[in-house]
Amino acid sequence: MTQQLKAFMKENIPVVEKRMNELVEEITAPEILKEAMLYSLNAGGKRVRPLFVLAVMNHFNVKDDAAYTVGAVIEMIHTYSLIHDDLPSMDNDDYRRGKLTNHKVYGDAFATLAGDALNTIAFGILARMEQVEAEKRLELIDKLSVAAGAEGMVGGQILDIEGESKQLTLEELEKVHVNKTGAILRFSIESGAILAGASEAEKAILVEYAHHIGLCFQIQDDILDIVGTTEQLGKTAGKDIASDKSTYPALLTLDGAKEKLHAHYQLAIEALEKLPSESNLLKEFAEYIVHRNK
Amino acid sequence: MTQQLKAFMKENIPVVEKRMNELVEEITAPEILKEAMLYSLNAGGKRVRPLFVLAVMNHFNVKDDAAYTVGAVIEMIHTYSLIHDDLPSMDNDDYRRGKLTNHKVYGDAFATLAGDALNTIAFGILARMEQVEAEKRLELIDKLSVAAGAEGMVGGQILDIEGESKQLTLEELEKVHVNKTGAILRFSIESGAILAGASEAEKAILVEYAHHIGLCFQIQDDILDIVGTTEQLGKTAGKDIASDKSTYPALLTLDGAKEKLHAHYQLAIEALEKLPSESNLLKEFAEYIVHRNK
After folding, report:
1. Contact with chain B for residue A213, Cβ under 8 A
2. Mind listing the pLDDT tens digit for each residue in A180-191?
3. pLDDT reading at B241 higher than 90
4. I need a labelling partner for A115 at 20 to 30 A (CA). Which of A200, A215, B263, B287 fits?
């Protein structure tokens, strides 16, 4: 990781994490519910999605405190999806990022409800961002709802579960990931562009970048499941092979998956080159996504 | 039920139901997910919440097609909460309104996700109501998020589960219901007032009416669990006593609960009398809530 990216993360991650905590702590709700929401919000993670919001703002040289709120909201949606994904009725995972999953600590009912509460609060927080003009807030709510819902993340999760019982083609596998993880990642990047007041042309370029970054992210995830260790990943390594899951390495071999990863990385970089001004930080981000080892 | 109220329901319920179906059918999402969402949306129900939106619009003599959309959205939120409440990790109900519950048909994972998708889509639909001014859309999203989330419905569900293992006081029981079922009912009535352009004073009066109506609704629910039959209710009667649940009849005796019901009915009617113009329909609605037998 470059010094610039490292400094950028070091500066911004604590601000996003503080914002998430404040936004939950300030509400009037049963303490155990707030505790369950905060448990998973504070269980670590790379904070890639909020960082993308901020990196896009940085590219446009716009400083706006609202970006931290939008980043925090996206992390809440991401966290709710992890809590529900980990439930016994879904992936049945006991550990996430090296810590017990939400339902292992609070039970299945409270975990379901903590996820529901994070999903619901996200939209209210966006609606109340008074420093952002009304039309932009509505655009953010509209697009987050599409990205997180049946047309995006939740739809992708359905496809993923349906795919467990059969061998997916490469095209089907890509569709799972473009929805399940890609849609929120694209929203992260697009929301930064919306807040920064980017042109429609710039937004389209950034969404193209985001599409390829999303696929890079997933392919590297699949590769790490094979080459990583449980300790390094903070979750059980080798789970995909053990469950005979359709993954990029399973479909393309490990080397084929690495080639595919590199191809999408190149396409992400090529997208960035179409922007009117250079974006070193977004380039470095692409490199980080491709080379990360956890 | 009066002829006026009967005619009002007959006219409006089909429009709300058609709107819900259109809003889900038009999205691009896995067919099985849309089917699961529609299964519970179309599983019947009294449609009390959307009818309240429309009854308030009627009181102010305002016709606005957006009221059907807001009503449909509230019914989606209500439906998602029922799907999650029925899950084995929560109430573990096999039947709802005489039909198999969502997870009995689609499995626990898909039921969880169908609920998530209904919760998420609701906010996007409100954001996209272009015929409603931006500030009103944001107010609706803000208030729905509070009513449905940790500060309202989800928080109430947590209190309800926590209360299962102990004897609640009347005050604690009221707090459960003011949140679990009351918050969305209040939002239904308030959203009609927002759409109709009611004054802050009128909104406050209607929220007071809604508060008492919400409690009437719950007390009658508790009473029906004792005096109703499984066939009539479409769900297992006598479940509260069997599970030793804290209810109004359990705390106050059946006669005491009936008195409490009548007291809240009176307070709801008194609230209405403070409005500048008479509202027969809202009065008749209160009577219907109190006298319903399912």
Report:
1. no
2. 999 999 999 999
3. no
4. A215
The whole-chain average pLDDT of chain A stands at 95
Superfamily of domain A3-291: Farnesyl Diphosphate Synthase (1.10.600.10)
Best CA proximity match to A280, nearest among A9, A47, A59: A59
Q: ipTM of the predicted structure?
A: 0.96
- Record the tokens describing residue A287, joined without a space: 């490199």
- For the stretch B64-100, pLDDT in tens is 999 999 999 999 999 999 999 999 999 999 998 889 9
Considering Cα of B216, then B221, then B223, then B228, what sign does the dihedral take? positive
- Taking residues B180-201, what's their average pLDDT? 97
A84-97 per-residue burial string, b: 16 or more CB within 10 A, e: under 16: bbbbbbbbebeebe
Scan residues 97-136 of B and list those with Cβ closer than 8 Å to A.
107-110, 112-113, 115-117, 119-128, 134-135
Taking residue A175's Cβ as centre, other Cβ atoms within 10 Å add up to 18
Give the number of beta-carbon pairs within 8 Å between A and B.
165
Q: What is the 3-state secondary structure (H, E, C) of A111-153?
A: HHHHHHHHHHHHHHHHHCCCCCCHHHHHHHHHHHHHHHCCCCH
For the purposes of burial, counting CB atoms within 10 Å of the CB of A207, is it exposed (0-12), middle (13-18) or buried (19 or more)? middle
**pLDDT tens by residue, B5-14:** 999 999 999 9
Q: What's this model's pTM, rounded to 2 decimal places?
A: 0.96
- Chain segment B111-137, per-residue pLDDT in tens: 999 999 999 999 999 999 999 999 999
Q: How far is CA B293 from CA A237, B194, B232, B252, B287, in A?
A: 56, 31, 8, 20, 12
Burial of A99 per CB tally in 10 Å (0-12, 13-18, 19+): middle
Rounded Cα distance, B128 and B245, in Å: 42
In chain B, which residue's Cα lies nearest the Cα of A24? B150
